[in-house]
TrEMBL record:
Binds 1 Fe cation per subunit. This is 4-hydroxyphenylpyruvate dioxygenase. It comes from the Eukaryota. Residues 7-142, 172-335 form the VOC domain. It catalyses: 3-(4-hydroxyphenyl)pyruvate + O2 = homogentisate + CO2. The lineage of its organism: Eukaryota, Metazoa, Chordata, Craniata, Vertebrata. It holds the Pfam family Glyoxalase. Its cofactor is Fe cation. PROSITE patterns: VOC (PS51819). Fe cation binds at residues 175, 279, 375. It comes from Scyliorhinus torazame. Belongs to the 4HPPD family. GO terms for molecular function: 4-hydroxyphenylpyruvate dioxygenase activity; metal ion binding. GO terms for biological process: aromatic amino acid metabolic process. The keyword Metal-binding applies.
């Protein structure tokens, strides 16, 4: 029996400079700092926009933060030293029962159930290791707590409570994408199915239930597959209505294919030191306004290939959706109409509609390493991910990374030439 998940609580980072990341999330992405916890051993900051909540964890002086009253709360420190988003926290009804079930299923419980309380009530939490690289899952039972977030976190100083928001509302996390090595997707999908009740769903009509959605080109390639948790999976319904606090949670797997040339998934695995969270999708109700606001604040985005908007079919598709191709081209926003594929209990239902489409764009990496992106996504009655957008995003990210690699080689050659000249002198 799988552990019933109530909802996604938050996503946690572990970084060397928490203040810098928090400042970027506030000033550039318009998140609001609404909670902090600082001890001599750790600094934990909590930021939100809509129901999307990030926790930023930092161990001052590079010391490993261990769970405990003065150490980390609601998390464990990863083994990797690289900056990383590495914890996805779920709310559950009964954390004792959840931890016991997961342990019986063979999961490693990193932090056994423990209570935390303050004047607003109590919560209980446990942390378990996932099968995806450094990713862990914190399970939180918070039915006995009346506060905004969790015990142990106080309000930040008034000077740090900068206003969030701005044009184009970001309302919640749309999806989380893991990057993983070849031949790992099936194992990961099975683990989330057995442990948390996640079910496979089809990204688009080109997605195969067994083989996933495969992109290949220029001696490179990746395989995408996806899963989601529906509240109704506990009672056997096929398609639920979504309650406000019980939003479905999508997890996407991006698996590198064995190819001669290194691709963006290989780059992530190399620089991150293994599998992990490659990007987080932020849902916005107005991607054009959000993109303008974030661009004005200094956020940099990937742009699609130059011919994307000049294709007649794409131009007509954008016009038919009621959008302006010139505006989308200016900001680099991708649009894809969708054949709405929903896989549930062995059945696939496909319904084509020009009224169903989604718009997306990727930020450039938010860390020095190419290990984490953020994505903006706006859905117009579209539940999956358009095949055209996936290919265009792949090409734009890959082109940028290829150019960075070429620039790196040129710099290394130039440095070598300078060294040789110095030796001759």
């Amino acid at each position: 029996m799988a552990v019933p998940v109530q909802r996604l609580s938050h996503i946690a980072f572990h970084v060397g400079d928490g203040e810098r990341l928090a400042r970027d999330l506030i000033q550039r992405f318009r998140f609001q700092l609404f909670g902090s916890r600082v001890t001599e051993r750790v600094r934990q900051l909590v930021l939100r926009r809509g129901s999307a909540v990030f926790m930023v964890n930092e161990s001052p002086g590079g010391r490993r933060g261990e769970p405990g009253p003065r150490g980390l709360l609601y998390d464990v420190a990863p083994a990797q030293a690289v900056d990383s988003a590495c914890n996805v926290s779920f709310e559950v009804r009964d954390v004792e029962r959840a931890a016991l079930l997961l342990e019986r299923l063979g999961c490693q419980v990193l932090v056994p159930p423990r209570p935390v309380e303050d004047e607003l009530g109590w919560v209980a939490y446990s942390v378990v290791r996932s099968v995806v690289g450094n990713v862990s899952h914190t399970l939180i039972q918070r039915s006995g707590y009346r506060g905004d977030f969790l015990p142990g976190f106080g309000p930040p100083p008034p000077a740090e409570q900068e206003a969030a928001g701005g044009p184009g509302a970001i309302t919640h996390f749309d999806h989380i994408t893991y990057a993983c090595p070849p031949q790992q997707s099936a194992h990961i999908l099975d683990w989330y199915r057995r442990c948390f009740g996640f079910q496979r769903f089809l990204l688009n009509r080109s997605d195969d239930l067994d083989d996933g959605y495969v992109i290949k080109g220029n001696n490179q390639g990746m395989r995408l597959s996806a899963m989601e948790y529906w509240k109704c999976s506990e009672v056997g319904m096929s398609m639920p209505a979504i309650e406000e606090k019980k939003v479905n949670c999508k997890l996407v797997l991006a698996e590198s294919l064995p190819n001669p040339d290194k691709n963006q998934i290989d780059t992530f695995l190399e620089q991150h030191g293994g599998a992990g969270i490659q990007h987080v999708g932020l849902y916005t109700t107005d991607i054009i306004s959000t993109c303008k606001s974030l661009t004005d604040a200094g956020v940099q985005f990937f742009y699609p290939p130059s011919g994307y908007y000049s294709e007649t079919v794409k131009w007509q598709e954008i016009m038919k959706a009621g959008q302006d191709p010139e505006v989308l081209s200016h900001y680099g926003i991708l649009l894809d109409s969708e054949v709405d594929d929903v896989h549930c209990k062995g059945e696939t239902k496909c319904q084509a509609s020009t009224e169903r489409y989604l718009m997306q764009m990727f930020t450039k990496p938010i860390f020095c390493e190419e290990t984490l992106f953020l994505e903006l996504i706006e859905r117009r009655n579209a539940s999956g991910f358009g095949a055209g957008n996936i290919r265009a995003l792949w090409k734009s990210v890959q082109a940028c990374m290829d150019q960075r690699e070429r620039n790196k080689i040129v710099k290394e050659i130039s440095a070598g030439n300078r060294f040789a000249n110095d030796v001759d002198i």
